[in-house]
Structure formats: structure tokens, C-alpha cells
């Protein structure tokens, strides 16, 4: 018990010593305040740090100004970099959510990225809907020059359905997919191959073109197309050779074409 009282006494003494030192420091700081300062200063004024201008030689002042401008420039660049990174993260998060949608909803989808030469087209799909039909989408890009000189990309699409008995006749067996949601699943068709395929589909009882939409996109921008429950997103870029097109696309549709519930 005696030792306890000793510790308490020592603690009180130490506290008093700290208070005395703090009081002495406050008094010293008070004596350093300019004589013309008001007698009654607010607590905020007393606690805010004071920045006093000191005499600088011209060379030193010029150097400090230059350093300040450099720091300002770096800060602005960092803010721009951070803003760009934030936007990229948002885009990636959206893509991840799109890829995870089949785990939450009964949908069919195809996601792929390809470089398509002039006159060629991209064919993807090959999954079956609930009615037993195989679903496909072809995209044929074409560079177009607007009247103001800007280059845009026109995407000509064909959404078509093929009966199982007709798949072999159209030589589409290689695209049959057991998976309802595919990534990088597709083939490139040259101009004459695409024309021949579209001609066979039009003249076949076991195939049907469901829609033939067109969309014009600015290079690097994502466009969305919706035809009923059929959804298509595409981002196209101009190739370095001046004729090819880089295409990122995603297609979605319900497994049951007669069920529009989400």
C-alpha cells in the first residue's frame, strides 16, 4: 500500500512538472508575438501556426518559386493519373460483373476480343436456347469517314438462329458449344465466306436471320445495342495499318427466348 501511495505521488509530481514546462513554453511563445498584435486574441489565433516572411536573396526566392511550381505540376499530374486509374478500375469492375452474371441469371453470352481485317467479319455463338436452336451473331466492321473528316467505325451485325439438322449443311459444327457462356469463342470469315454463309441462311428452311442491326461507333467508345432481350456491347478501335479494326464485344440473351423475366 505504501508503494502505491509513492507511485501516485510520483505521478502527480510528474504531471505538475509537465504542466509547468508547458506553461513556460506558452509564456516564451507569447513574448515572441509581435508587439502590435491585439491584446485579446482568440484561442484559434493562438494555436494556429504563424508563417513569417523572412528576408530572402533574389536567387533563393527564385529557386523556391521554381520548386513550388514543380511541386504544383507534379500534384496536378498525380491527380490526373489517379482519375484515369479510377475510371479504368470502374470499367474493369463492370466487366467482371458482366462475366459473373451467368452465375446469377439464366442467360447465354459470348465475350471475345479480336482484330478483324478489312472486308472480314467475326462469327461467334454456337450455344443452344431452350427451343433447341443454335444462336449465332456475326459482326462485319467497316471504317467510314464523316464529312468533318473524323474516322468512325460502322458495325454491321447479323443475329441468326440455326436448327440442329442444318448445322452441318452450313458447316457451323465447329462452333457448337456445350457451354452457355463462352470467352474467346469464334472464327473470322473473309468477305466471300461471309457472303456465302448469309446466302445459305437466307435460302435454308432450317435457319433464320432474326435481326440485322447496324451501329456506328467512335473509335475507343463503347456502344450498346438492345433488340428485345438480345443485348450487344461493342468497343471498336482503328488498326495501326489503317484498314483493320480491333473489336471487343459481348453478346447476351436469355436461355429461354420465350421467357422475358429477369
List keywords for this structure.
single chain, 6-stranded antiparallel beta sheet, 35% helix, 4 helices, 262 residues, elongated, 5-stranded mixed beta sheet, alpha+beta, 11 strands
Describe the structure.
The chain is an alpha+beta fold. It has a domain at 107-254. Helices cover 35% and strands 32% of the residues. The protein contains 4 helices and 11 strands. The protein has helices at 2-32, 43-47, 58-100, 191-202, and strands spanning 107-116, 121-128, 134-145, 151-162, 181-183, 186-189, 207-211, 214-217, 222-227, 230-238, 245-254. The strands form 2 sheets. Strands 2, 3, 4, 6, 7 and 8 form a 6-stranded antiparallel β-sheet that branches. Strands 5-1-11-10-9 form a 5-stranded mixed β-sheet, with no helix packed on it. A hairpin with a 2-residue loop joins strand 9 (222-227) and strand 10 (230-238). It is elongated. The termini are far apart.
Amino acid at each position: 500500500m505504501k508503494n502505491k501511495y509513492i507511485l501516485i505521488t510520483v505521478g502527480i509530481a510528474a504531471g505538475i512538472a509537465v504542466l509547468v514546462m508547458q506553461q513556460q513554453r506558452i509564456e516564451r511563445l507569447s513574448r515572441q508575438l509581435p508587439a502590435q498584435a491585439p491584446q485579446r486574441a482568440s484561442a484559434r489565433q493562438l494555436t494556429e501556426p504563424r508563417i513569417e516572411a523572412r528576408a530572402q536573396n533574389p536567387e533563393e526566392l527564385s529557386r523556391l518559386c521554381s520548386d513550388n511550381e514543380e511541386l504544383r505540376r507534379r500534384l496536378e499530374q498525380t491527380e490526373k493519373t489517379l482519375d484515369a486509374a479510377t475510371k479504368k478500375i470502374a470499367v474493369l469492375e463492370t466487366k467482371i460483373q458482366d462475366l459473373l452474371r451467368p452465375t446469377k441469371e439464366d442467360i447465354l453470352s459470348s465475350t471475345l476480343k479480336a482484330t478483324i481485317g478489312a472486308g472480314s467479319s467475326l462469327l461467334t455463338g454456337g450455344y443452344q436456347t431452350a427451343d433447341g436452336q443454335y444462336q449465332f451473331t456475326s459482326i462485319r466492321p467497316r471504317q467510314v469517314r464523316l464529312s468533318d473528316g473524323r474516322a468512325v467505325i460502322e458495325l454491321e451485325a447479323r443475329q441468326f438462329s440455326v436448327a440442329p439438322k442444318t448445322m452441318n449443311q452450313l458447316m457451323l459444327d465447329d462452333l457448337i458449344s456445350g457451354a452457355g457462356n463462352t470467352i474467346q469463342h469464334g472464327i473470322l470469315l473473309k468477305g466471300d465466306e461471309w457472303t456465302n454463309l448469309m446466302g445459305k441462311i437466307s435460302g435454308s428452311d432450317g435457319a433464320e436471320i432474326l435481326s440485322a442491326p447496324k451501329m456506328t461507333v467512335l473509335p475507343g467508345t463503347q456502344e450498346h445495342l438492345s433488340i428485345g432481350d438480345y443485348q450487344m456491347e461493342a468497343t471498336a478501335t482503328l488498326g495501326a495499318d489503317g484498314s483493320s479494326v480491333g473489336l471487343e464485344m459481348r453478346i447476351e440473351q436469355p436461355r429461354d427466348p420465350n421467357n422475358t423475366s429477369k
